[in-house]
Structures
1.
Amino acid sequence: MSFKIGALAKEHSLMEIPLNIKFAFLPVLLLAFLGLECDTVGQERIDGLRNRLKEHVLSNGMRFLLLENHESPTVSFHIYYGVGSVDEQTGHTGIAHLYEHMAFKGTKQIGTTDYEAESRHFDRIDRLEAEITAEQDKGNMSDGAKISRLEAQLKKEQNAADRYVVPNEIGKLYERNGGTGLQAQTERDETHYSVNLPSNKIELWMAIESDRFQHAVLRQFYEERDVVMEEMRQTIDTEPFNRLLLQETITTAFHAHPYGLHSGIGWASDVSHLTRAEVQAFFNKYYGAANCTVAIVGDFDTATIIRMIDRYFSSVPAGEKNRRLVTVEPAQEGERRVELEVPTQPSLVLGYHRGDVLSIDSVLYDVVASLLAGGHTSRLYKALVLDKKIATGVEVLANPPLVTAKYPSLFEIIAQPVLPIHNVGDLEKAIYAEIDKLKEERVDNLELRKITNQAEAEFVRSMANNETLARELAFTEGLEGDWRRLLTYRQRLADVTPEDIMRVAKELFRKSNRTVAYIVPK
Amino acid sequence: MKKQSILFAFALLLFALAHAPVHGWAQHTKKRPIDQLSYPPLRFLPRRPEKVQLANGMTLLILEDHRTPLINMFAMIRSGNMYDPADKIGLADTMAATMRSGGTTSMTADEVDAKLEFVAASVETWMTEKAGYASMSALTKDIGTILPIFADLLMNPAFNNERLEVTRNQRLNSIRRQNDTPLAISGRIFPQLIYGKSSPLARSATEESVKRITREDVVRFHDTYYHPNNVVLGISGDVTKDAIIQTIEHIFAGWQPQKTAFGKLPVIQATVKQEVYFIHRDIGQTTFRIGNLGIEQTDPDYLALTLANSILGGGFFSRLFNELRTKEGLAYLTLADHAEGLGAPGYFYTHSETRAGATLRAIEIVQHLIKQMREMPVSDSELNATKESILNSFVFDYDSPKKITENAVTLYYFGLPLDFLQKYRDNITKVTKEDILNAAKKHYRPEATILVIGNEKEFDGPLSTLGDVTVIDLDRWR
């Protein structure tokens, strides 16, 4: 709705670091689902979730997690596909994200007045585009006049197809019917699609989503590829800090595993060469029911919604379940450093190789992240910002942005120096001194208890929010294979001992295990 | 510092919603299954917080809701960055930040942090141009410990010198980084071009102005504005009305009302001719804004203008989205909006980004779409879709007691009736195509201000074709 109320959204973040990115899975979100054995508030809610959630699996393999919540007449939907940019190959980077854009272009029914007539132009458009690209790739030898001529022909052909196009109709249908929070996001390990609707519009979601993931049409393909090129310029080219964090750190830390292939959005030269046929093949391969988990939370009747799900989604082809990549990153044999010389203020990112989300140490990475930077009383914030006053902000992430640790991942520490007195070198030394303490000194029980309390409160807060809950359910089921890991997480947390923390700190925080990335102002 | 979450997401700017005429709402030749769906009516009764006036002048807005064992508070305090002295811009903001971080007269900063964080409660304080804010969130079981801290921070902040220095470092850091991205530059500079760069509504702190701020200034600012009669406090969640009123009265008992002399905002002059400003950045993508001074949200034209903005540059329906992004592939981010407008006139603007080589072409398209809004009525289908979208999504403004209460506090603070949102909904249905055309004619001005950020060498032509260009050197821009 468009009435605007200013300044309701306060940044509660401690850091002054401009993390201009959509964080997929901050530790605080993971911690959102903790509980404490002694605390009945969280316990009641966990029991409630366990008993009320209904799992429904179709014969094609599509999994639905259904949770009624009648607090307001609204419903939140979250679709999780187990495919992301980690599944891409050199030369085709960015294809997962480009498909995500194309998923909004409609189907044979939605987004067109006459699919048959429209699609007759596709072959010619593809051929012209291929000819233009081939000519452009000749570089200095390319024939400008030929390119202009081909471009004019292409535009004509695109206009002919456009006569039948109802642009952005999926988005329009949702908007018109009161949808909010309509979003899609491509991460390394997954691609997910979400929306909230008034609860009388559930069937609209069924109709759109069952159609778009069966009969997707990649219309206006090359125009949308240009949009994605603009998105790359905006998020990577104009944002030096994003380049450091999303691109330089991870591509330096990983040599073998495709986490290190690119920033997640792809390399510009790859994206500009992707074709409709290639993206269609990607869709056909990965967007089957077997790769899909859906969570629905809100105001509905479970028996009724199951009948609707069966009617709409049983016909979705199963497809093949995405296979786990076999590539394992070899152990790092020495510190890696990368410097970015750009016209901006200095920043520092430290990355340490860690295990994956299912490893027994996974919960420990979250605890260490909280100990180091979870609030004003956390160790790095106190040492760097409050006491030594050498940093303006510090952030610790159990995983890099857009990585959810389906595969062994990175543990990251991000900080910015107080200028002009201090530099990233000062920060680096001070951080090492602080994390070394974790290796040698036992964490006291009160400090551990603080972290579990925070988790408890976050859990209660998120239980009241359909959107968050749907997201967490879909992610835990899709990524970890069982949504109940949300509930057992609290036990894993309760089992954490000070000795575990010392052990994992010793394993993580080794010089030879780290990547140091920083910005030097140009 | 506002965070923009736009990376890799198919980010949709859903604050305004409209449908594009340019292609038209194509008529489907055959009836599709999706058009045959019918929806049951939505059962939904918006709730409203109860207003209570305390003897010390504080206004409470209370909404009981016992479904979650959680209590939220949200206060607005009559003050704002606009009351900063001209030589100490950044004072109000520094005060608000240090109020939370600097402890109280009876508790050290470390004690406050430790107590709050041990039970994962949050207390936050911050400042905007037109108001001070404070919020609290705690589990019901912890309210006995947390509420007194919240009250103490509001009434008796200590502004510990050490913590003041941390705030100062953070503010200086923000200022040093303020030109790091074109998005940040346009967000800061454009309002200054609209309101005037020294206007209390748009001016920004400098390193010198922040360094000049002393602890005494901070204490004085708090003493001047933070009185109970200047406070609207929203309370939502697991409370019972009578009990919480008693508690609040008891806890704030020592806080005495006091009259505050509020300075008056200078009159804002609208520009009289088209103005073009250019900021050089050595990057391959151009960012540009086009806009002009707008109106207050109480203005009779406001609803029609809201619909016009939606149709021009809201979500999937909008003309900007469909033309500049979908059809031309020239932009990822493109939108139109009417910003601010509470307590003072807001401003209309479009924001777009495009590759440098298409800069003038993209500006021309945006200008053309704005002009079209002034010259031709919108289509029935655009109007209907936009209205439906607003009416159908209305329920999301009421989907949590916290949200309902925060909206009510904001409305009350700015002198709008508490049933404004419900009325707004009814009034939306009455807006006609003529209303929208009239609003566009009046409030989308031909004498707009254009701000372009990028590398002119790579543009598809000289900017001077748009008019006289004023080059802004950010290092000298004060």
Note: The first helix of chain A runs from residue 27 to 30.
2.
Amino acid sequence: MTQSTDKVLSSDGLTFADRLTVNVTETATAAHRASVAGPVVLDLANVSVFYGSYEAVRQTTMSIARNQITAMIGPSGCGKSTILRSLNRMNDLIPGARVAGRISFHGTDIYAPEVDPIQVRRRIGMVFQKPNPFPKSIYENVAYGLKINKIKGNMDDMVEQALRGAALWDEVKDKLKMSALALSGGQQQRLCIARTIAVKPEVILMDEPCSALDPIATAKIEDLMYELAADYTIVIVTHNMQQAARVSHRTAFFSAEVDENGVRYGRLVEYDETQKIFTNPREKRTEDYITGRFG
Amino acid sequence: MFRWLTLAAGLLVLAVLALILVFTVKEAWPAIQHEGVWGFLTGDRWVPNDPDGPGPARPMYGALAFIYGTVVTSLIAVIIAVPISVGIALFLTEFAPRRLRGPVITVIDLLAAVPSVVFGLWAILVLGPWLFDAYQATHGLLGAVPVLGSIFGPPQGPRAFMTAGIIVAIMIIPIITSITREVFATVPNADKQAALALGATRWEMIRGAVFPHSFGGVVGAVMLGLGRAMGETIAVSLTIGAATQITANLFGSGNTLPARIVQNWGDPGIPPGRSALVGLGVVLFLITIIVNYLARLVVSRAEIRMKGASA
């Protein structure tokens, strides 16, 4: 966390960063959560997401561990994207959206009134379904986040580093001034990843990052995710079960249900090591989905 | 078949433009001959006097003072209107609660429906006296400062370049606002979310995602507003003071090309007075074309600089 973004966020005089470090161990030892390997970065306790009075996702409890790739799978309308977008407060942008329960990032409730959503998004980056580079040059796309977050250092070096980190540097190093929109879809998506890692977040949320890409571009992104997991915590929402099986350490299976009033809602059914989810799931519902019997 | 129809429609527009240009130039020709092209464009006196009267021995028709007045009032109008319009458009697309949006848009569109003569009357009856006080106060404050002292010089009355500029600004705000708003509304949500997901504040998101996307469209909106500002006749005629003078003093009186045309059309003076007035129209037409062409250049240059080369 840089000096300029390190604002005092709470009344007890602790900065956001201080509170994060203070609370790491406390959360990691919380016993009732599904056991995860390594320290917990994000912890969801009874999280429900409302749109107006409609409860779209109900009672989600799970922990996300550092430097792991956590996949969220499930049929359409199961709430996996909704949960993902609540992790960096992107849901704030939807009028009427509201989160109940507690989402803590290193122990700090990210929905606490004193927490600035901009701070949260700065530390929990996001890559979207459709590659969405800005209509600017390749260089400016990566530099944008560095500029707005006033990150000090040699801009050229930081841009290069981010592009290398996203395995894109060799393809674009001679045309950094070219419009990002002239790149292929897969390159655009890697540019979006470069843009995200340029500001050095801790967590990268990926919302179906390969659904608009061809298999070769998809394979490149998956390889990249594996490399990125060394430095970042990754949460990926995917429609593609094979993708979840290939890249993730842990998998959360969400399902769309209908309650006694006939209202559809999403629910976390099972959350476990990916291998276990795909070979020996605990819940019948998971097994049905994995084996293609529904969804 | 459809292709030919559309082609014909396109050609018709060109033909009408060409005919307007040809016939106005033809009508203006006697005056241009009288003064010479250069003399007509650069002469700063407009004296359609009877040679037997107390004026100069021959009538003089120079358009420069009106070209100057047109440029100055339009620039004042655009400088005032653009930030306000962009601000309103941003407010409507990014900040305003949904239920406020409709009423605000209606009010602004209503502003566009007010006839320009009403704006002009309001300006001289209500706004003018109030502005005159403001001019005097401004001059008192800045009069001694070099440069600023001559720009905000001694007020010559409520009718001035500034008054005309302000009233035209109010008149072009609705046009610029509504087009700018449409342009802002076309910015993909994905771009905005990308900026916000990087930790951008709302304003940083607007600068990084909304503006680069909308630059061309906003310039187009400004050009439409500028076109209206340069062509505005009645409201300007009522508020600018009808003085043929070139002065840096924005609080001084002046005149514009279209205002001069309507003021004199009924009594154009001895020939080629009427031709000279048509000539002013030709000049206005040419200025508009040049400004639009320059705007296109600006947009294409800026887009390359901002968005990167396309290949």
Note: Residues 186 and 214 of chain B are 8 Å apart (CA to CA).
3.
Amino acid sequence: MSRSVWKGPFVDGYLLKKAQAVRDGGRNEVIKMWSRRSTVLPQFVGLTFGVHNGQKHIPVMVTENMIGHKFGEFAPTRTFSGHAADKKVRRA
Amino acid sequence: MARIAGVNIPTQKRVHIALTYIHGIGHTKARQICQSVGVPEERRVNQMTDDEVIRIREAIDRDYTVEGDLRREVAMNIKRLLDLGCYRGLRHRKGLPVHGQRTHSNARTRKGRARPITGKKKA
């Protein structure tokens, strides 16, 4: 079920501050962040976030299309490169 | 023969059933359409007057997205997810379930027929 509209989008507060700081600073640096649960807001467009995937920060360039998605969606937490048996099949 | 919304030619069935042959119209929408243009439930397609056919055609054109347009819309939505590089896009790309279902077993609709694992020893 989707979130009630009256609550507004969920964002961890510190992100807003960090994003604003980078905007004011002018230089486009990667904003390290752990808040995968936060929504991508319109004011984040054009910034680069380093979204934590549990191990390291994945750089995510925010584009207009991403608005409304959660940051976590752009930094996969699992690495799966297929089963050993599958590879054998491909080699044969 | 009645052509409604392009290529669909439903036959001797009741109108509200025949309309479900159109991609994008199920039972609920079919009934809504029949009600809004005043076609009684017992009416069959070959008993419809030309006027009724025209009104149904207009109602569908006006209020609903069907067939090609609907398919295009769905494809566009999926394409957006693919281009975005988000989790749902990755799942679409890999042909795995998108809504968080288990893949340890089942998920055969997305994964297709089960492939035997080669080199697996018999117990």
Note: The radius of gyration of chain B is 21 Å.
